[in-house]
Amino acid sequence: MRVLLVEDEPDLGAAIKRVLNQNKYVVDWVLDGTEAWNFLDDQATQYTLAIFDWLLPGLSGLELLHRLRSQHSPLPVLMLTAKDQMEDKVAGLDAGADDYLVKPFGMAELLARLRALQRRSPQLQPQQLTVGTLILDYGTRTVCSQKTLSEKQIISLTTKEFQLLEYFMKHPNQIVTSDQIRNQLWEVNAEAISNVVAAQVRLLRRKLASFGWSNLIETLHGMGYRFNPDASK
Ligand code: CA
Question: Which GO terms describe its molecular function (predicted)?
Answer without folding.
Answer: phosphorelay response regulator activity; transcription cis-regulatory region binding
